[in-house]
Amino acid sequence: MATAPTKQSILHLYHSMLKTSQSFSSYNFRTYFVRRTKSTFREIQNETDPAKLSAFYSEKAKELAVLKRSAIVNQLYGGWRLVVEEQKPERERGDT
């Protein structure tokens, strides 16, 4: 019988996935992965079956590794900011 991961470990995984999702430089990828992470963890919120929880945890841990690699690649090849994103003010030469 599989032992269920603790609530604290699932919350840590959730926060890690949210943080990694926020690190995408592309607005579309960033918002998609944040929404997807929230909805996925909302579905498993009231689950008590240890086998399902353990399978969910191991699957999402693998997905987190893929998400981290994808975020790094997206940061390397990030494009222009979109109009809907908050624009940083342009600095002038004398500003620090």
Automatic annotation (TrEMBL):
It comes from the Eukaryota. GO terms for cellular component: L-cysteine desulfurase complex; mitochondrion. InterPro entries: Complex1_LYR_dom (IPR008011), Complex1_LYR_LYRM4 (IPR045297), ISC_assembly_LYR (IPR051522). Residues 9-64 form the Complex 1 LYR protein domain. GO terms for biological process: iron-sulfur cluster assembly. PANTHER family: LYR MOTIF-CONTAINING PROTEIN 4, PROTEIN C6ORF149. Belongs to the complex I LYR family. This is Complex 1 LYR protein domain-containing protein. The lineage of its organism: Eukaryota, Fungi, Dikarya, Basidiomycota, Agaricomycotina.
